[in-house]
Amino acid sequence: MAATTNDSASKFDLSRAGEYELQSRIALAGYDACHELSACMLSAHLGTQGAANVLVVGAGGPAQEITKAGLLQPDWRFTAVDPSEPMLEIARARVAGAGMAERTQLILGRVEDLPDGPAFDAATLVGVLHHLPGSEPKRGILQAISSRLKPGAPLILAGNHRAYASEPLMLKAWGERWRMQGATADEVKAKLGRILQGADPPHSEAAVFALLSDSGFEAPQRFFSSLFWGAWIAFRAGRPN
């Protein structure tokens, strides 16, 4: 659940990679529930077909996208790509610890570096989009994923949406979440300042849906929400009847 461009990946150095999971669990109330439901949504859609090849974009860190879905579906195989080497090493250890190393290929790089073609039965992009500045990089990564999915294949997309400063009550509640976990008032102020300066989420759910539509996806449906965070399933255009 890390960034996927070279500039964004630089934020996920060894220091940040080491604290990523703890910070993510505080920042996202319902961290485990979101990953579990993401796996359940994929399994509900693909489970009857048996084996499946799943593309996990921004896979570095705890690798929950792999370990949760892999627990439900022992015949699934995963191709996981991330441009941050420290984050990918954490994912490698987690995948091995879950006994899923033999069915997971971990690649240091970007999804655009993968071979073209509709090779995958499903994909996930979790915690990535809001790290990419502007609409074009967001659209670019979604298009790169779309071009590598089979028609009708599902995408799990999850991340922050809404302009943070436009929702002052939610932003304040987010700060209270940090304070609830022991952060001081000054620490909360610093954290929110970094968030406001260092992330660029889509400004609405409608903007998320527009990005998906422009990138070859259809029928998006939200299945999880937590303050600014949302999680959706959408499908590569050309769904089979």
Automatic annotation (TrEMBL):
Gene3D superfamilies assigned to the protein according to its UniProt record, in alphabetical order: Vaccinia Virus protein VP39
Name of this protein: tRNA (Cmo5U34)-methyltransferase
Species annotation: Noviherbaspirillum suwonense
Pfam families listed in its UniProt record: Methyltransf_12 (PF08242)
PANTHER family recorded: BLR7975 PROTEIN, METHYLTRANSFERASE
Domain Methyltransferase type: 59-154
